[in-house]
Inverse folding.
């Protein structure tokens, strides 16, 4: 049984919601409680059995990340970091394609620095554990107030029975449909996709085929949700884990402030 040993970290975004902080450094390197946001992702990776990390960056930010990684490698020898570039902001699915030579034909994890989760074990470790049970793509899910639904990818679900063994707390669902940023009227639930996934080679192939069919890669043209929806149409199974810990959206100034206060009290 193939283990999840590879992680894709898309960090090429410009961090517009975090201005003026991102005028000086990339979003992933903004400090939270004395450490760059990226540190928290690497810490999750090391504790989850990850060996290789594909860091997908904006070429404009290369010198910032090179400097950070030079210092990071002096503190940690458990990860091999592969820098790859996203030359156009084509969406998170487009970012994942840039890591194809790293993940190859293996299942892999994806996390986003925006989402800091206070889970123990970590959200990444729990996702990987559930993947080992279901052997299919699995996504992090969070319930949000109805008035916020239009900001997210929303899922239609079917409850599944959890195996009789020790597993991280939280409900698991089979996902039957994904709708990107629906109106409240169209939303099939208030369960939204956040923070990370474990994906299979078929999802990467879907992304590559879609990208090859596009005449140009426009801004945000290729979200990963499109490839997931294709997987469902083709009869594949996708699952979601509704985590029970606190999540902080550190892609906003308010979320960053709330995460700082939480960590200061921990």
């Amino acid at each position: 049984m193939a283990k999840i040993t590879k992680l894709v970290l898309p960090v090429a975004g410009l961090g517009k919601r975090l201005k003026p902080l991102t005028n000086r450094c990339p979003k992933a390197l903004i400090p939270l409680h004395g450490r760059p946001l990226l540190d928290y992702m690497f810490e999750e990776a090391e504790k989850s059995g990850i060996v290789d990390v594909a860091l997908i960056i904006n070429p404009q930010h290369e010198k910032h990340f090179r400097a950070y990684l030079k210092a990071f490698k002096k503190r940690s020898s458990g990860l091999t970091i592969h820098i790859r570039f996203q030359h156009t902001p084509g969406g998170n699915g487009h970012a994942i394609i840039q890591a194809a030579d790293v993940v190859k034909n293996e299942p892999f994890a994806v996390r986003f620095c925006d989402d800091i989760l206070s889970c123990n074990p970590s959200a990444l470790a729990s996702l990987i554990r559930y993947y080992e049970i279901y052997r299919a793509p699995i996504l992090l899910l969070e319930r949000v107030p109805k008035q916020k639904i239009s900001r997210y990818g929303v899922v239609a679900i079917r409850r599944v029975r959890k195996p009789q063994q020790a597993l991280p707390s939280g409900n698991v669902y089979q996902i039957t449909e994904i709708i990107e940023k629906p109106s409240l009227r169209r939303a099939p639930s208030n369960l939204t996709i956040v923070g990370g996934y474990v994906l299979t080679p078929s999802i990467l192939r879907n992304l590559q085929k879609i990208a090859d069919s596009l005449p140009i890669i426009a801004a945000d043209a290729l979200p990963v949700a499109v490839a997931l929806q294709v997987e469902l149409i083709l009869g594949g199974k996708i699952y979601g884990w509704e985590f029970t810990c606190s999540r902080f959206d550190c892609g906003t100034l308010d979320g960053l402030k709330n995460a700082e206060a939480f960590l200061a009290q921990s």
Remarks:
- Residues 62-75 form the longest helix (14 residues).
